């Protein structure tokens, strides 16, 4: 490139940047109303009604729309931005413009249908979703959403066809399986309903409504234990039917308001993306610096991300804003313990119990510190005290079970010495009872299922009678089976499950379990070698 050409390129770049800056400034300034000059019929809320990050994002989106009023993508993005911040009427108007400009793009009627549904305009929502399905027959989310609307209106046969269409597009669609199960139950086809709900749980093990519905069927069939398990899981997991939607995820990702940041942080945390969760929650805290709400989950996310020092500051700030001194010192103790600073952790938990001597969480934290110091008797006393003070909490029971489970039995020595045998059996029985109590209080607690099974396996090793050995193994298999079904991401659960199947002589089932685990963790040599077919 010649010097004159370089100079011309540089001048053009500067001019473009200056023009963009002027447009952005005009959009922000025109925005005492944030309605856009040159965009008739598209008013937006007063500037004072919106948080600063939302105003700025909308101003930038309006600049893009004004620069290309015939650009469907610009209108669509404006609609998504409005929807991300609860401006649903405005989102629908933007989506309509986008649809008019790009009538063969199914994204805009899809999103307009979801926004209309949230506005309780079900007839219009149904029309928009039908349009989305006409454009893209493989839109499983639109099909399921429309099916639910029709189901609510009693149009069961049309709803059933849509659920089947969703399964053709996505065979792993748990929402469609649940819908078909509900329709089958309504028609009195109980066997078909149970099968459909079980398939839903295979696709999405943490689908609360599927667990709740199965609980009712098992109760009617007299299967009390299975009914109780599904009932508690349904209650713990909630009423939302999972329906993953990449388009809705794009909308969520545009959220910059306080509420949107909280939601994005919660979603990232539930997926184990702790640093991303902390980023969103920190942004929320900056928007509401005098609120404790974002700081507590922010501290928890930072702890999980291994940033215990920052976590301690946020947890202390949250508790201080709430005016709860005992909670502040309890959270500080947790954070200091995570950093390995046991002296500060002990000091903090002492301050917590000084402020509130029977604080259950503080008792559990002190028990864990005492266990680390080797004072098992004092730790057990703290865990039992914490569980007694707050019977509804699983924390004390879980910590007690984990402490009692740690040593494991010396089977040969125990079986040869009645005194040792009695002591080991008593310990394993107490651990088993503690884990079962934790499960009763919180059904979606994988550590408790795993601990219950391991305590049962220890009792099997310590049993002298063949019948007790069989019953202990059967109970452990049941708990481990539940663990790998409901929490398939927990690798150790699969390892224990496979070992228990081998112990029961169920080699065919063990091989199938190994193959499933190998699909989840192909790099793990324990599963890779065992999954190879015989030569």
Walk me through the structure.
The protein is built from 29 helices and no strands. It is mainly alpha-helical. Helix 3 (72-84) packs antiparallel against helix 4 (88-101). The radius of gyration is 29 Å and the shape is globular.
Question: What is this structure, in a nutshell?
Answer:
With 535 residues, the protein is an all-alpha fold.
Strand % is under 5%
Q: State the order of secondary-structure elements, H for helix, E for strand.
A: HHHHHHHHHHHHHHHHHHHHHHHHHHHHH
Distance between the termini: 65 Å
How many H/I helices?
Answer: 29
Quick check: average pLDDT?
87
- Taking all Cα atoms into account, the compactness measure Rg is 29 Å
* Beta strands, count: 0
Please give the share of residues in helix.
over 70%
Low-confidence stretches: 1-38
Structural class: mainly alpha
Q: What does the largest sheet look like?
A: none
Shape: globular
Which labels suit this protein?
globular; mainly alpha; single chain; 535 residues
Topology:
Blueprint: H1 3-30, H2 52-67, H3 72-84, H4 88-101, H5 107-118, H6 122-135, H7 140-152, H8 156-169, H9 174-186, H10 190-203, H11 208-220, H12 224-237, H13 246-253, H14 258-270, H15 274-287, H16 295-304, H17 308-321, H18 325-339, H19 342-355, H20 360-372, H21 376-389, H22 395-405, H23 411-416, H24 418-441, H25 446-462, H26 466-486, H27 491-503, H28 507-520, H29 525-531
Helix pairs in contact: 1-2, 2-3, 3-4, 3-13, 4-5, 5-6, 6-7, 7-8, 7-9, 8-9, 9-10, 10-11, 11-12, 14-15, 15-16, 16-17, 17-18, 18-19, 18-20, 19-20, 20-21, 20-22, 21-22, 22-24, 22-25, 24-25, 25-26, 25-27, 26-27, 27-28, 28-29
